[in-house]
Structure to design on (698 residues):
């Protein structure tokens, strides 16, 4: 929701390019539009959240209002609509009308795909442009260029939510494209191990492949490798915990616990490592010495996180600590948080 | 270093300016001016600044909002009913053959209702049954909701807006609640938080939409058992970085997430687990002391959305001199109490609309 309102690109063409502005002829000064009576925006009697529209903006939308009312669907209106969308790609109605014109004029959909590609390159974080692309690709029933196109956009910003969401739609609607997706994701993770979007896509691919234990084991090893390089990376740790959702009878937990213990014993104090060790505490309510040690260790981790390694979340770790005491009915402890 | 202080008067001025006239650079909001109105009025209400608007001004705003309502008639089928976001194509209201281009948007309807309640309108002129039927017509078979009828996109944002509308109008009988809950569950990811759609990356905004929606339905525990709540709580608490909150792991903090994550944790009863002091400092350090308003970070200029959500975030952590908010509806507690009061007087004057399957 946040992206919607903040990340529309502001309209550069309307304000910044002096030369363009000089050559541009308003619709009201174009002889070929003399037959159309423009319709001004009707804001009623009161002025509320008024926008000081530029002349160009008011002019284009006054003519757009007029053709909407008359229902004209022609080549010149396609041009007008293109201008309107350059000024405001967040206007749903203009996109709806554009689609009607495209259908009516039987515009070559490949040309339309090229058009929307250019618009998306300019307004990469606008919802409507991606939605329009989806409609065109559905009509073409041809996804052959879609993975390459989204890869291009992700090359500009590898965490662009819109591009990832669209890419998942393509992969779901045309499932045979999924084959090479793991390679694509691998590449992105290699470039930036902190790219959480890429890790999410990895899970999306693995999850959709209905993985057996061998696959999960391979994924565990892959993730261990990445964590050993960058142990403070939350994305990899979240993925690791996600893999444990596939664990039956604790088979993967033991492996992860062993990995974590080794890392910890080597002196690693990544907050995510410590947090994971707390999660994997395999204690119960019994009072035998081994069990008490396990609980004490978890409480020590909480205490160290709260006071040394993750002080911004001090209140959180204090709460987790109390929760552990409660869970294991643990009373005789001396590992209190200061 | 001195602790940053909130300057309420400056932000009130910022909002009052936004209510009057906005620069041409924001023309991209031409089609959704109602969102700016919403952020400005909710923000003013949090600042306890609604009194600075005259009664006539409030009345003008209420009338402006009501003009955006589409009601069922021979030119407008009930599927399109609700509120438009602006006057851009208001000339098509009641124009034969133009129905396709003149339709409501569920986010705008949600915001319109919040604005009206905030200004003390009793919603008596809202065609409630038509609005509810309009919302119902946006629901897809997977339980999600579209933004608008013609080619609208669907995701958790519009699920939230739809449920908030049903909650405000006190009637969810027109939608399929079970399917809605299924959709929300399907958006739950391996890391314990929610993406906009099934499979997409967990995000602070969509997580708020999911949790607020479930809370409005009183079904939080149905989707999140104890273990899942715990994992989500950790994910949300982990979003606090450098004082402020980020929307996704390994991204930069942004003031609006002090609301999206703050409200999520508040609804879950877990807000005490965050570092309120550092969150407060981060948000207040992004206030613009010259113009008023808050920006998303140090590299940006203020905008009404970040200003309102910054104040919402500050209100949640108990900032002095700010009115408390209802985190699930995102209006002030005062407005939410007023809503409770008027809900008792609702009547459904157009009940027959529910029976009519054909377009009017």
């Amino acid at each position: 929701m946040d992206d919607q309102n903040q990340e529309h690109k502001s309209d550069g063409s309307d304000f910044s390019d002096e030369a363009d502005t000089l050559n541009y002829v308003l619709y009201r000064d174009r002889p070929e539009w003399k037959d159309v009576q423009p319709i001004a925006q009707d804001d009623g009697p009161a002025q509320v959240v008024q926008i000081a529209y530029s002349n160009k903006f008011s002019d284009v939308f006054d003519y757009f209002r007029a053709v909407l009312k008359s229902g004209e669907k022609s080549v010149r209106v396609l041009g007008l609509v293109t201008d309107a969308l350059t000024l405001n790609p967040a206007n749903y109605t203009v996109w709806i009308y554009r689609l009607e014109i495209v259908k009516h004029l039987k515009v070559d959909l490949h040309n339309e795909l090229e058009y929307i590609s250019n618009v998306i390159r300019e307004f990469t974080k606008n919802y409507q442009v991606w939605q329009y692309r989806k409609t065109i690709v559905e009509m073409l029933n041809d996804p052959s260029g879609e993975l390459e196109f989204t890869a291009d956009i992700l090359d500009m910003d590898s965490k662009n939510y819109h591009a990832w969401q669209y890419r998942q739609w393509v992969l779901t609607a045309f499932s045979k494209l999924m084959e090479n997706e793991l390679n694509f994701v691998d590449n992105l993770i290699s470039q930036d191990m902190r790219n959480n979007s890429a890790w999410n896509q990895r899970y999306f691919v693995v999850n959709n492949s209905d993985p057996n234990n061998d696959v999960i084991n391979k994924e565990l090893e892959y993730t261990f490798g990445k964590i050993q390089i960058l142990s403070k990376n939350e994305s990899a740790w979240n993925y690791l915990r996600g893999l444990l959702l596939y664990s039956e009878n604790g088979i993967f937990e033991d492996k992860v616990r062993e990995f974590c213990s080794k890392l910890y014993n080597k002196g690693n104090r990544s907050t995510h490592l410590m947090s994971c060790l707390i999660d994997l505490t395999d204690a119960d309510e019994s009072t035998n010495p081994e069990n008490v040690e396990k609980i004490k260790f978890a409480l020590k981790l909480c205490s160290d996180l709260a006071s040394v390694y993750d002080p911004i979340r001090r209140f959180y770790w204090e709460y987790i600590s109390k929760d552990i005491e409660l869970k294991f009915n643990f009373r005789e402890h001396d590992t209190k948080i200061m | 270093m001195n602790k940053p202080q909130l300057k309420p008067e400056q932000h009130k001025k910022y909002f009052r300016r936004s209510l009057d006239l906005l620069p041409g650079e924001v023309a991209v909001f031409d089609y959704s001016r109602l969102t700016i109105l919403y952020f400005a009025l909710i923000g003013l209400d949090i600042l306890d600044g609604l009194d600075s608007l005259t009664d006539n001004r409030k009345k003008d705003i209420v009338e402006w909002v009501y003009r955006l309502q589409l009601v069922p008639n021979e030119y407008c089928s009930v599927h399109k009913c609700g509120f438009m976001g602006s006057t851009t194509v208001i000339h098509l209201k009641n124009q034969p053959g133009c129905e396709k281009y003149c339709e409501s948007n569920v986010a705008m309807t949600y915001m319109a209702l919040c604005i009206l309640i905030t200004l003390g309108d009793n919603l008596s002129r809202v065609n409630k049954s038509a609005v509810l039927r309009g919302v119902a017509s946006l629901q897809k078979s997977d339980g999600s909701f579209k933004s608008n009828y013609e080619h609208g996109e669907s995701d958790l944002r519009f699920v939230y807006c739809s449920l908030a509308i049903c909650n405000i109008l006190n009637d969810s009988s027109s939608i399929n609640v079970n399917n809605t809950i299924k959709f929300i569950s399907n958006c739950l990811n391996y890391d314990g938080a929610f993406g906009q759609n099934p499979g997409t990356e967990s995000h602070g905004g969509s997580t708020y939409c999911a949790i607020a929606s479930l809370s409005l339905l009183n079904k939080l525990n149905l989707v999140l058992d104890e273990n899942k709540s715990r994992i989500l709580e950790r994910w949300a608490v982990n979003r606090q970085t450098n004082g402020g909150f980020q929307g996704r792991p390994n991204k930069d903090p942004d003031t609006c997430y002090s609301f999206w994550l703050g409200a999520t944790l508040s609804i879950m009863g877990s807000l005490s687990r965050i570092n309120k002091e550092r969150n407060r400092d981060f948000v207040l350090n992004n206030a613009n002391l010259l113009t008023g308003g808050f920006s998303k970070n140090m590299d940006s200029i203020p905008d009404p959305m970040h200003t309102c959500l910054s104040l919402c975030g500050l209100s949640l952590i108990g900032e002095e001199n700010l009115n408390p908010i209802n985190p699930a509806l995102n209006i002030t507690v005062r407005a939410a109490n007023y809503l409770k009061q008027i809900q008792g007087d609702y009547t459904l004057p157009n009940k027959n609309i529910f029976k009519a399957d054909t377009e009017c």
Observations:
- The longest helix of chain B spans residues 33-46.
- Strands of chain B lie at 21-22, 69-70, 82-83, 240-241, 244-245, 325-326, 331-332.
